[in-house]
């Protein structure tokens, strides 16, 4: 844990990710109490207004405050990412770890199911399924994403479980008659914590990106506000053509920042878990420090000589 928290990439990534979580939790209060508005309120005196005055990030073509939508949309986008990530990694852990540890026909059957889902064109299928649904809210979008994105995670977990089940400590537990589920939950799962964290963060970002893509293509809508719906409405109402960057650029930037934050945490986890990366990173820091010290010494020598 100390290595995890002292890693620079991890701290930056967690800080950004934590900021988005905080905005998602208190966003509605900020919009109503601080801004004194709501994402659906229409200001007929400021239709398509540029940033400034009462609307710090301008308004949409319908007169809705963009900053209020940006803050409120954080909850919807982050909720979709978290829910889809939990579902995808949960199903992947159930299928991958069970098949990898039990083996035999169970593993063959679960691997076949995983391969079938992995070969399906997930995004087009999500479009088709969502098109037949009456109400496609954030929860429905998250469930669709989670149900179609778990096979890749399951393959990673199965491979790691196959490696772990042949270790000496697992064989020793089998010899003393330890139950399978206790070995999985108490011995195998703790060794998979790092890869589970990495897969979960990746699934969260995939969920946010996929939700934005589905919204951009016209899936859902209604009263729900997410970063994806902001970009979709900006495109549908010609905000891009009119050059209303304050409408579509901020949600796109926030999506990119969320992806960068999770990538930084994953890079930090790789450095902590991989000795080669950890030592190379430390060596790079030492080389940079030595270079700066040598440059400083040369500068001081020149100043003394002059």
UniProtKB/TrEMBL annotation:
Location of this chain's protein in the cell: Cell membrane
Domain ABC transmembrane type-1: 78-266
Signal sequence range: none
Membrane association type: Multi-pass membrane protein
Broad class of where this protein is predominantly found: membrane
Membrane-crossing residue ranges in chain numbering: 12-31, 78-102, 184-205, 245-269
InterPro entries the record matches: BP-dependent_transpt_permease (IPR050366), MetI-like (IPR000515)
Superkingdom classification of source: Bacteria
Keyword terms, alphabetized: Membrane, Transmembrane, Transmembrane helix, Transport
Family: Belongs to the binding-protein-dependent transport system permease family.
Name of protein: ABC transporter permease
Source lineage: Bacteria, Bacillati, Actinomycetota, Actinomycetes, Kitasatosporales
